[in-house]
Amino acid sequence: MKKIKIGLIYGGKSGEHDVSLSTAKAVIGEFDFDKYDIFPFYITKTGEWRAGGQLPGPVDDVRLLTFEEGGLAGENSKALTPLFGALSAKPEEKAVTVSSAASGKEASPSVDVVFPLLHGTFGEDGTIQGMLEMLNVPYVGAGVLASAVGMDKVAMKKMFAHEGLPQCVYRHFTRKQWEKDRSYFIMEIEVSLGYPCFVKPANLGSSVGVSKARNREELIEAVRGAFRYDRKVIVEEFVDAREIEVSVLGNDSPRASVPGEISSSSEFYDYKAKYVDGKSVMTIPADIPLETAQAAQEMAIRAFQAIEGTGLSRVDFFLRKEDGKLLINEINTMPGFTPFSMYPLLWKESGVPYRELLDELVRLAVERHEEKNAIVYGFEA
After folding, report:
1. pLDDT tens digits, 71-90
2. For the chain, which terminus, N or C, has the lower number of CB atoms within 10 Å?
C-alpha cells in the first residue's frame, strides 16, 4: 500500500514555540513509519520557514528539529518561504510545497496531509489554517473559524454564552480602552469579579502571560504584563474549583473521552506547572460522580460543535467545590500532544491508543478535505 506523506509543521512565532517542539518530537516518535513518510517544516521564533528532507525515523534530540548544526535540514537549511504558486493546483493534486527563498528550488516533495503541531499565535489561531485552505491541502485539526474562536478567549466565551453553557464572570478590554478608561475597568472588575482574579492575554495558551491579582496594585501590574503578549486582555473571577478536562475527537459526529482531573503543583495551573517542574498530577479517569462525568462529556461536545470544531480539541472545566456546579473554562483546538499530555492520555483510557489516535486524526483530515472539495464554489446557472 502506498505510504501517506505527512508534512509536520512546528515551532512558530509564538510564546509557545518550545512547547510545539516537544509536541513535534513526541508525535514523530509515535508515527508508524511503515505507513507514513514524514517531512519536517520548522518555523523559527521570528517566523522564518525551514524544511528538511524525509525523516528516516524518530528524532531523539529536540534540537535537531530546529535544524541546528546541519540537523534535519541538510542542504536545505536556508530560509524558506511557502510557495503560493500551488494556489492554482487542481484539488486532486493536493499540492503544498516549500521553496527556497534564495534559490527558488523545491526543498521538499508535495505532501498528502499537513499536521500543524503549532501552539498559540500564528498556528493555532486560524492563520496557518487559512494558508492551508488556500493551498487546498488536507490538514489535521480545526478549520479557520474554530481555530480563531478557540484562540480568542473573548470570542470563545461569547460563543459559549450563546450556546447556553455556564461559565465564570469575566470582563475584557483592549489596550486603547484600558489606557482611556482604566479607572472604569478597575471599578468594573472590583465590583463584578472582586479579588483575587485572573488576568490573561486574550489570544494565547499554555498559561503564558497569566497572572493572579489579589489587589488593585497586582491587577494593574498583571494587566501590564498581559499586554506584552496581546492587544486584548480578559479578566476572570476566581473560582475555588477542581480542574476537569475532556478530550473530543471527530468531525460532524464527535465523541468525548472519559474526563480527567489536573491537580496543579502551583497555586494555579501555570506554564511552570504544565511544562517545567513535572509535579502536577493527572487523575484519569477523574474521581467524580457519574452524572458529573456525563455532563462534562455532553458539554464538551456542545462546546466543540458551537465553534464548529473538527478533528480534535480538549475542553477544560471548573468543578466548583462549594456546590459541585460545572463551569466551562475554555476549549483548546490544538492541545498538548506528547504521550504524557492529557489529550492522548484521556483517549488511551477511553480505548484509543496514541498511534491509533494519530491514524484517526489523519483520516478525519482527509474526510473533511474531501467534503469541502465537493462544494461548488462558482455559480452554476
Report:
1. 554 444 444 455 443 333 34
2. C
pLDDT given at position 69: 55
Q: Under DSSP, is residue 290 helix (H, G, I), strand (E, B) or coil? A: helix
φ/ψ of 46, rounded to 5, equals -100, 5
Q: Are 197 and 238 a contacting pair, CB within 8 Å?
A: yes
Residue 120 — pLDDT band, cuts 50, 70, 90?
A: confident
pLDDT band with cut points at 50, 70 and 90 for residue 14 = confident
For CA atoms 285, 286, 288, 292, give the dihedral sign.
negative
Tell me the pTM: 0.86
DSSP state of 108: S
The reported pLDDT for the residue numbered 204 is 73
Residue 82, SS3 per DSSP: strand
Question: Who contacts 336 (Cβ-Cβ below 8 Å, separation ≥6)?
Answer: 19, 23, 119, 274, 342, 343
Q: Please, what's the b/e burial string for 175-213 (b: 16 or more CB within 10 A of its CB; e: otherwise)?
A: eeebeeeeeebbeebeeebeeebbbbbbbbbbbbbbbbb
Using CA atoms, how far residue 24 sits from 56, 80, 118, 215, 218, in Å, is 15, 19, 9, 40, 36
| 3-class DSSP assignment, residue 42 | strand
φ, ψ of residue 226 to 5 degrees: the values are: -65, -35
pLDDT the model gives residue 100: 43
Within 13 A of 224's CA, how many CA atoms are on the CB side?
6
Q: What pLDDT does 90 receive?
A: 44
Task: Considering only the C-alpha atoms of the chain, give the largest distance between any 2 of them, rounded to a whole number of Å.
Answer: 66
Q: Domains in the chain, start-ordered, CATH in brackets? A: 4-139 (3.40.50.20), 169-237 (3.30.1490.20), 241-372 (3.30.470.20)
Q: How many helices (H) and strands (E) does the chain have?
A: 10, 16
Residue 42, CB-side half-sphere exposure with 13 Å CA sphere: 26
- Residues 238 and 198: beta-carbon distance below 8 Å: yes
Q: Return the SS3 of 140.
A: coil
CA neighbor of 367 nearest in space, from 247, 253, 256, 257: 253
- The per-residue pLDDT for 105 is 46
Cell for 22? 516537544
